[in-house]
Amino acid sequence: AQRVTQPEKLLSVFKGAPVELKCNYSYSGSPELFWYVQYSRQRLQLLLRHISRESIKGFTADLNKGETSFHLKKPFAQEEDSAMYYCALSGPGNQFYFGTGTSLTVIP
Amino acid sequence: EADIYQTPRYLVIGTGKKITLECSQTMGHDKMYWYQQDPGMELHLIHYSYGVNSTEKGDLSSESTVSRIRTEHFPLTLESARPSHTSQYLCASSERFLYYGYTFGSGTRLTVV
Question: Given CB 3.0 to 4.6 Å as the disulfide criterion, which of A56, A98, B6, B108 pairs with B43?
């Protein structure tokens, strides 16, 4: 069965420090992975998708099929990056399966 | 403006009451979803629809029901609310392929007392 695991519920980093939010998945098919973000008092929104190999707001994520991971990274964290981040897998039934989320706090 | 709308944003209701959470989208999306979100937990899919007159139950067992009579409207109904239904309910929609991801509504925070 498909599953998305985000091992860190809370993550704090200092402004300017690198940040990595971990995501591991289990899925027997060919996975499509996404990251969603929810800023304070805002809606959950798509941040980036692995298939696009894009960088959004300085964030990147590489799909590692060998390690079944899709970690989200940014070299220099900014205060505005403080938010809740959800890793999601597009799987059977053409729907998303979400992890439990990681709350990122960037300390000034 | 093309968007997805959920009403109400907050609802406090007594046990045993019937309630309907509204969700409408003006993007012409065929697919719509209802998720339940509790603090510190993953989003759980409770219902989804791939088009008019199409509704399916999700992975999370739910005592709610949905209908899809019009493309833009996907209401969720609880016939008899219980305290265990207290949660955040998120509505989302998507195009046919998930490449563009979901568009989420602002959510309805339901409290059953």
Answer: A98
